[in-house]
Amino acid sequence: MTENERKPTKALLPLAALSGALAGLAALAVAEAVAGGVRPQAGPVVAVGGAAIDRTPAAVKDWAIRHFGTDDKLFLQLGILAVLALFALALGMVALRFRRTGAAGVLLFGVVGAVAATGRPDSTGIADALPSVAGAVVGAGVLYVLAGRLRPRAATATPEAVASPGAGWDRRGFVIAASAAAVGSAGAGLLGRSLSGAGGRDAVASRRNLVLPTPGSRARPVPKGAQVRVPGVSPFITPNGAFYRVDTALVVPKIDATTWRLRVHGQGVRRPVTLTFDDLLRRDLVERDITLTCVSNEVGGPYVGNARWIGVQLADLLAELGVKPPSEGGPADQLVARSVDGMTIGSPVEDLMDGRDALLALGMNGEPLPFAHGFPVRMVVPGLYGFVSACKWIKDIELTTFDAYDPYWVKRGWARKAPIKTESRIDTPKPFARPRAGTVMVAGVAWAQHRGIDRVEVRVDDGPWQEARLAAEDTRDTWRQWSFPWQATKGGHTLTVRATDRTGALQTAKRAQTIPDGASGRHSVVVTVD
User: Fold this and answer.
1) pTM here?
2) What is the pLDDT of residue 60?
3) Paired residues of 446 in beta bridges
């Protein structure tokens, strides 16, 4: 048979693409199985996804959060899988003609995954490269074998076979090898899922068995009038399952509270210390109602929630270790909190020690913190946006200066300091609603944590500002609900809201993007009255 007669025909391209897909599937399945034994965050999809997040411009991240909300990470992982699938199909077709080149392409992706995994801030070392390397080796082997079964066999070549497109290849051998690859991939995938689940069982058990002590300082009951009786308004206390989640963790860390440790060290710390979870439980616990706000929250957006937190006063702990705020001569003006996933968040020491209820939180709405919200311990600081205060899955606290260190978000163009802006939102009626003429209840929430809300006003179209009825205030660290009985007339109308905080500062009408220190402007909704 001549060399020209040996060339694969186009009729085999679909099978070659299938070979690439099976090789890619095998590589990912084996990688995830190995990651289950190493740690789930070392898997190639998670590692590459994390690296992509780290290198994505802040404006793009903000766009993703606005459009996909808390599903932004799911869309990222689906996008990565889609790209990998396309490359796997292409490598399969390349391998039909050039087996070694196709297999080398799979190995190259393994190198990319290994570099991404070992380069992550939370990497534990060279072991994080094992999942990507193992998966790539298996995937390359699968592709090499399958591509070989598609090549014409010299021993069986006949003039009739050569004349027939795609003839002469090892059909039986290809079916057996492809079936084995598919079954093996499924088995590896199940093994990986089992190992990953086993790794989190101790963490789940530690949370399930945890009974939080009764706080020595209890939060007062929520005032009866704090919740307005208007359908469509957010509940005053946000349920854990409905509380917003915005972070960069593609895999929610599951940490065993019995093995968790928190190191506190740095400038001004007289005696560095490493604390256990039991150490915190033995301290005086407090219970506080605090509203949190994400800096990615657009004007009128959903990334704000109110919960009842149980925790340890951070200022008391710092003071015991000799830390003083800058106003009292302390050398450190920034507290850098580090998470187990590598996130770093910087908070002003002055704010943390000015008397506000800055907490190392252990509980949320009467139960241990959910895993997605930072179990076993997270920071909660009223009055500061989450990106400069709300470190979840915290493992390390370092006292330093703003000049000496830029945390994760500051390196990406966000502000070093970010007090929460005075904002308000219309919850009802919804945009483009069609209420009937007559009395229509306009209602929503306003917030200015650590300052409190003093007044809320509503304007219809270009009319005068009219004062809304404020619900009872819980504390100045929580949002405040409001309502306004509008005598609606037929036609299209624009409703706008603004708030004034306890310092007398009026919510600005000037529009600003979320970057670098939070959005500003006034929320409006357009409705048509029938």
Assistant:
1) 0.85
2) 75
3) 424, 480
